[in-house]
Amino acid sequence: DTGVSQDPRHKITKRGQNVTFRCDPISEHNRLYWYRQTLGQGPEFLTYFQNEAQLEKSRLLSDRFSAERPKGSFSTLEIQRTEQGDSAMYLCASSLAGVSGLRNTIYFGEGSWLTVV
Amino acid sequence: AQSVSQHNHHVILSEAASLELGCNYSYGGTVNLFWYVQYPGQHLQLLLKYFSGDPLVKGIKGFEAEFIKSKFSFNLRKPSVQWSDTAEYFCASGRRFGAGTRLTVKP
Question: Cβ of B7 under 8 Å from any chain A Cβ?
Answer without folding.
Answer: no
